[in-house]
Amino acid sequence: MAQIIDGKLISSQIKSELADDVKILKAQGVHICLCVIQVGNDPASSVYVKNKKKGCELIGIDSESYELPEETTEEELLDLIDRLNNDDRITGILVQLPLPKHINEDAVIEKISPLKDVDGFNPISVGNLCIGKEGFVSCTPAGIIELLKRSNIEIAGKECVVLGRSNIVGKPMSLLMLRENATVTIAHSKTKDLKEVCKRADILIVAIGKSRFITSEYVKEGAVVIDVGINRGADGKLCGDVDYDDVFDKCSFITPVPGGVGPMTIAMLLKNCVIAVD
């Protein structure tokens, strides 16, 4: 039977540690401020932005937000980011994704200064990760590393399969696991014999966006299973990319959905905000 990795508990521990760090920084006269930009009124994005503001308040850092109308042009958004890049009061900039279709996300991500790129999406941030230099790391993959380490799960020397190759999760996740000395395979929709590849994994990290796709047939006995997905099942309930009930008895550790990886993303965003002033 698996042990449940409690992302809510671990994220709370990280936020408490960050709150202590922020108190020390404030006593030294250091100012921290995250600026969040949302274009349009996508309901899910609005919830994420609200949670990020609450997280800032919880650990004691300032936040500013721009809620821009759907019809905001790409040029207007890039001009705003440019102003924020040059505003010394702002130490971190986050543009909530997805953006309206008429705005080029790549151009927006590239516009954010690497010194304020607390999401870790800028190509310079990604490049630093690739070559092992210091820089911001994408929050969800960084959060997964924290989940593993704080659950006393050994990474070095273990075989890890990352299922999914997105720029936000799959690719940076594989690089972080390499940094921790795991042997890493990236699998995806074109991978042959996907079940057999996944069954090699001591640590299986799933980020493919397919509801309950991974069943016990994909999981090695005693594997650690990290479920990054969040979907709405046919029953209307939130679920992950892993069939939790089917896999539970086969693995050693597993993250639930909700309450596993999700809470860690904001915790690591807040950590990046604190790192930004170092």
Description:
With 278 residues, the protein is of the alpha/beta class. The protein has two domains: 31-116, Rossmann fold, CATH 3.40.50; 139-263, 3-Layer(aba) Sandwich (Rossmann fold). Helices cover 40% and strands 16% of the residues. The chain contains ten helices and eleven strands. The chain has helices at 7-27, 43-59, 74-85, 105-111, 123-131, 139-150, 170-179, 194-198, 244-247, 262-275; strands spanning 3-4, 33-39, 62-68, 92-95, 159-163, 183-187, 203-206, 224-227, 231-232, 238-239, 253-254. A six-stranded parallel sheet has the order 1-11-8-7-5-6. A three-stranded parallel sheet has the order 3-2-4, with helices on both faces. A hairpin with a 5-residue loop joins strand 9 and strand 10. Helix 6 crosses helix 7 (170-179). The longest helix has 21 residues, at 7-27. It is globular, with a radius of gyration of 19 Å. It starts with a strand and ends with a helix.
